[in-house]
Amino acid sequence: MHDFILTLEDLSTKAIGNVEALFAQANGFMGVRASWPVRTPEATPGSFVNGFYESHEIIYGENAYGYAKEHETMVKLFDFRSLELAVYGQVFDRLISEERALHMDQGILHESFVYATAVGHELQIDLESFTSHAKRDTYAQKWTIKALNFSGNLSVKTAAHHLVAESDDEFDPRIREASADLIFEGNRLTTRHSGLSLYSEFSSVDQQFDLAEGESISFENFYRLSRENHFEPVDYEDLKKQQAVIFEEFWKVSDILIEGDVQLQKGIRLNLYHLFNSAGRDGVTNFGAKGLTGVGYEGHYFWDTEMYLLPFFIFTQPDIAKNLLTYRLQKLPLAKERAAELDFKGALFPWRGISGRETSAYYPAGTAQFHINGDIAYAFSLYEKVTGDHDFIEKSKEVIYETARFWQSFGFFSERGFEIHEVTGPDEYTALVNNNYYTNKMAQHNLAYAAELAKRFGEHVQEAADWQEAADKIYLGYDQECLLTKQDDSALDKQVWDFAGTPKENYPLLLHYHPIKIYKHQVLKQADTLLAHMLYPVDLAQQARDFDYYEPLTTHDSSLSKAIHGIIASRLGRDEAAYQFFADSAIMDMVDGQGNASHGIHAANMGGSWLGLIYGFAGLEFENGKPVFHNHLPASIQKMSFKIKVKGQVETYTFTQEERNV
Amino acid sequence: MHDFILTLEDLSTKAIGNVEALFAQANGFMGVRASWPVRTPEATPGSFVNGFYESHEIIYGENAYGYAKEHETMVKLFDFRSLELAVYGQVFDRLISEERALHMDQGILHESFVYATAVGHELQIDLESFTSHAKRDTYAQKWTIKALNFSGNLSVKTAAHHLVAESDDEFDPRIREASADLIFEGNRLTTRHSGLSLYSEFSSVDQQFDLAEGESISFENFYRLSRENHFEPVDYEDLKKQQAVIFEEFWKVSDILIEGDVQLQKGIRLNLYHLFNSAGRDGVTNFGAKGLTGVGYEGHYFWDTEMYLLPFFIFTQPDIAKNLLTYRLQKLPLAKERAAELDFKGALFPWRGISGRETSAYYPAGTAQFHINGDIAYAFSLYEKVTGDHDFIEKSKEVIYETARFWQSFGFFSERGFEIHEVTGPDEYTALVNNNYYTNKMAQHNLAYAAELAKRFGEHVQEAADWQEAADKIYLGYDQECLLTKQDDSALDKQVWDFAGTPKENYPLLLHYHPIKIYKHQVLKQADTLLAHMLYPVDLAQQARDFDYYEPLTTHDSSLSKAIHGIIASRLGRDEAAYQFFADSAIMDMVDGQGNASHGIHAANMGGSWLGLIYGFAGLEFENGKPVFHNHLPASIQKMSFKIKVKGQVETYTFTQEERNV
């Protein structure tokens, strides 16, 4: 079972930021980075509460009508993991050694640190900790402190340091920290601008212990945060037992067994572990791009949830899927306001944010990604198809209608069909184009699904006919000469990026070239047309041509890219390529493949690695609304086994090399 | 000669902001708004020094590589026109009446105000003032103050109030005020961030006068500002005489006589007056979009200079034209830096700014307007063609070479020819398009002119061949089916704006709709393809089709639009339309046609009205490099007479209805 335990040896870089993020613990409500127990400047501790953000006015160099008005930034709350330790007035501030073992099977982190004072007194600090899934308001710790080579009076003090954002004068758009202006009143803390409150109940230790050499002391500690000022009593051992039961239940359905590659096995488990941990459970929160493990992307929710995370939840943890979809339903009124503000009908969900309001301060790669609407509709329909939970869809149908109304008013009929202009597709190295293939496919599905629901519920007859017409006549660009699917109207007319002349250190391109330089070239950040093919397969020869054309143009500067490429490669029988894409994706954060795991896990990529296994190696497609599988297992994986839950029934699937070769 | 005098009666709105801007005085170095002599909250006094700006870091909601780094804002300096007046401790703060007479023939403003105290004491204040063109460091005033209905001890105090920017929480991108952080040391003032200094020498009055009813006092006052701490003595009457001589010289060449419409006659003179007043003379300053009459557009220099103002100067005041072109030559090193920053060769001039650095905080309508390079090259070539000053072009040839190098590296050869992608043309209601017709035409000329110069000077042989090839193969989009010039690759594919459904109060569109909504439609802010046709005429039938197609799609939300439409209409023999476009343009600020004359004059439109007369009604075109004229005089103008200076020779042209009807 050691491939259920993540240790420091599994990480290719042990920089503290990466360790903090990968060993972070969370329970959908609260997240805690695995920082060191002694505070030090290079560490970046943090704890977060899902949906707890501070807002700040967005300042534009040049403002314009309809721009998003406020930033929302998930608040970095406290350092819950530091102790103040001293003996003979000397502090233990020299880290001698550390060991960490994240028991993913139980949801518990075991750590052991040796610290020394300047004069050489050494302590061993053992910490067992977890963010409780039974009581989501609780982060529970059990500390054991042992005097290794001295006797003396040890002073021990716990302290939940309130953290402030680090100033950030970089222009890396992927991180953005902003100080929250918190008001502390008794055990309540409130954000000054967004007006959100949390209550706290922190136990604490502030004691002196006479320790003999080799002797140890031990104590439990609880840091509790809640939206209500009410905390039920908790018992450490009880919570720990409940945690193990909950994780056992989780893995029972969600685990995937991979034989033949221990690193991949551990990588995929780490991914599923984090997915389970960071998903909002309350219907009013969602899943940040970095989960609850770091401040990257300000803790914002994106389309990542619908397109990269929800398939995993829908197929294995449908209750969590329902909670995440309920968040969108809750935010429908704000999405309607936003569409009206932009002078369109229906609802437009925000490209990014927490509250449900648009917060993207760069509309060409923000608001213009209208495909968010289609992504949300897609997720609802996938949920219905897999779970059969028609009641929930009946409750949520306005989401589908209103997003369809948006497309109907945003697009227009021309000689070519129903066209959708001035959008940005998933590939953010191209912006503000006409008829992005992915967007048009998602809009088509959204419109058709709305028409289907309207028919089912016997309503909106005329509108439904219009929606169906738009869906039927959707314009999908195709180059008859090159036999290629056109990513957008002008995609194939552009100059090809000078890859040979681009030094390695100039990737990701977005940090080294002006957007105009990037946009004017044929160069992709991530899967775009290929993602559409993954969802809506065209004939294989076409997928092959498009793959062969677009993949070499793709930098994979986005962590959302490789898994999708792997899936198409699987379909095409290109096992070696498929395996490599999958492997890069499965262990991306373990090897810090994107170079910024310290900002937090790449949640969408983690979900993408699940897609890679199930849609790729296991070849999931739908036939007549039912999942069917095709064995695309690459040679280096002997056997893969997993479960999915379809209409309440858990089914186990096993794929082997032998079967494949039959 | 009364049509040389602007009075309040000529303005359709007498709001103080408009009056301040239209009666403002300037001399290319210094500008002073015609504010009231008693300070009041609704007034917006201001004085400015050309090129004297403060910089501030641009804050982006989301930053990216290569974005402009600093705002530059022309500093609103002092209120030079207010007096503090009191009798018996009562202040004169009630304006009873005012008269203003701007003697444009002499460059002198005569004003008369009656003010009263709360208890009814009345004063008449007469002010004669001018910004000296003989001594550009001097703003000269002659005050006469008369007790109308009282006797008493009048206290009179002049005070140059230092002005601070008004806060601006609107999102109107056309205005932007920012407080300058000025450091005052003795008679030197320095901007804290941009580090620019000015020296001042202000005379002042602080005196008590025993006045009998009907009696008056009189005094002169000088406000002087200079980049050097050196002020030569001045004499009011001498300066006044010199002013009259200078203006006589100016009008001798630059005046245009229009018979049949007094308002138009005055309108065009007001326009030429302001053009003469606000143009930088020193080769290191240029001409702000609002001249030196207001804070609109932060006092920035745009392409307006090259395309709307320079033709007037080139044809009638070539020395001023040379000064304005010298500014660009001076800034070439910064333009080379900018091109390198964006990873292109050659030089890229800034879309807007003062120092020569790019300051546009919204690149889709800023940096992306690469046509600025072609506009500058065009102005140099027009200057050479009209003046025959080849020496200056030899000195400036690097401007042409470096801009050509930019195009060569920014564009690319495809099957279709030499293409230029991801640019924004003059029409800012469309952004980031491929092969904007205007841009491609300007680039073509730029490349060809560079090749021509290289040949003339026997250098850069291989490059010149490349430039010529790119010019020869420039791709110009044309719709074979509709027989229309394509504004850009996708211009004709878009949905047409719903003009019928757009309420009048929703114009200008940019203040009422999100950019995406605007960009995705066929709707134009201003002349784009038609401007290209004005410069590079195609056959008349084509111009007619393009006019008929594009004009109805044009909102003329930009003040740069109507004059150009008028010129094409003239060519097409559509006299009525031509006259209306010209008239709207000629008196635009007198009737506050754009609704924001208070921000300052619309300088480019003023230059545009000159273009309307000379390129439109007089039908100027070039044949074999020589200007030729065609009489397009509309029916309501009996006679038009003007002079132009070609290769040093002043020639007079007169057009009459009789001749036209022959």
UniProtKB/TrEMBL annotation, chains A, B:
Keywords: Glycosyltransferase, Transferase. InterPro entries: 6-hairpin_glycosidase_sf, 6hp_glycosidase-like_sf, Gal_mutarotase_sf_dom, GH65_N, Glyco_hydro_65_M, Glyco_hydro_65_N, Malt_Pase/Glycosyl_Hdrlase. Residues 10-199 form the Glycoside hydrolase family 65 N-terminal domain. One of its GO terms (molecular function) is alpha,alpha-trehalose phosphorylase activity. It comes from the Bacteria. Residues 269-610 form the Glycoside hydrolase family 65 central catalytic domain. Its EC number is 2.4.1.64. Belongs to the glycosyl hydrolase 65 family. This is Alpha,alpha-trehalose phosphorylase. It comes from Streptococcus gallinaceus.
